[in-house]
Amino acid sequence: MELVAAVFREERGRLLAALARRFGDLDLAEEVTSEAIEAALVSWPVDGVPPRPGAWLMTTARRRAIDRLRRDQAYAARLAILQVEADRAGPVPPPGTDGDLPDERLLLFFTCAHPALAAEDRGALTLRFLGGLTTAEVARAFVVPTETMAKRITRAKKKISQARIPFRVPAAHELPQRLPGVLQSVYSIFTEGYAASAGPRLQRVDLAEEAIRLARILRRLLPGEREVAGLLALMVLVHARRDARTGPDGELVLLADQDRSRWDHAMIAEGVGLVRTALSGGRPGPYGVQAAIAALHDEAADVATTDWPQIAALYDVLLALTGSPIVAVNRAVAVAMRDGPQAGLALLDELSGEARLRGYHPYAVARADLLHRAGRHAEAAVAYRGAIELAGTTPERDLLRRRLNAIERPGGCVG
């Protein structure tokens, strides 16, 4: 059954993408994909897994779809339209030609991350259709009620249908505008897994690993795109620290205090190799630069010997590429490690008017920590109280409370 489950996990996205492209209907594609999998669950344990399981599932799903279209007058009309469109488009290119796609899941990546869809819907659709998560699992990932997520997914599917969003890969000249949305969609899944926005746990390891799996698919489908390599590099380099980021009781362990022997060094080696790919052959992209920063952290023996001047310089590059105030916060922390807390605080103070940073938890934490390092303990205590109010997870709040308590004790200090 493990082999069968692995096949379903690998093939589900391909089935959905191919059927959605063929019939232009995500609902229909999802329904017949589920029916094909159910049929396999009945047949394969008796007859064995076929030599080409993906082809078996595709044939079964396609037949179910055509049968349903023939029985339904409304769908029958759509089938006729689809046939006309297919005739106009001409024959499907044979394998190996320039028009052939190595894997039709690429269509679904771009459809789920289409700019016409709401930003909050893109990651949800990607998890639902490419990650294979149930609606309830997607809801848990985004910390919303299942009913809310069901409505969100339904709304997004209607948008795809009503706006006639095409199930296709953008042309080469469109990729620079469209690919960042796909990468951001996958990265948003990873960040929620790496640092949960709310709840009792700091990490959702399963979610982070699903994002990495999706990025590996993208890497296979778009091997020439350096930013895809950069995104995968960034995620594996950060995820390599997962086992050391929490203690026995789930408490948050900061980078400076982590047992680096517990880091996944094979994953780090993979990430460093991907960084070289991401940074070669032209101007680097934001994910490639972030991955280079992560690599410097992972290759250092400890925080004291980390190459902070190079990290600060890379943040200069990243800030020039993105103009993001969130990047500016990270840059301020790196500058503080290089030049001292007052230098970092000066940069954070310059950002105090940024609307995007109001209520941004990492900004509040960075300011509290730098105030403490600068010996401004009364101000640090106030800043820590504000950061506690903004913290989303229990481990983050507990750590900040420990730091606040240490400051407020007579003669207390934070290590």
From TrEMBL:
Keywords, alphabetical: Sigma factor, Transcription, Transcription regulation
GO molecular function: DNA binding; sigma factor activity
GO terms (BP aspect): DNA-templated transcription initiation
One Pfam family it belongs to: DUF6596
SUPFAM superfamilies on file: Sigma2 domain of RNA polymerase sigma factors (SSF88946), Sigma3 and sigma4 domains of RNA polymerase sigma factors (SSF88659)
Domain DUF6596, first and last residues per copy: 178-278
The protein, known as: RNA polymerase sigma-70 factor, ECF subfamily
Origin species: Micromonospora citrea
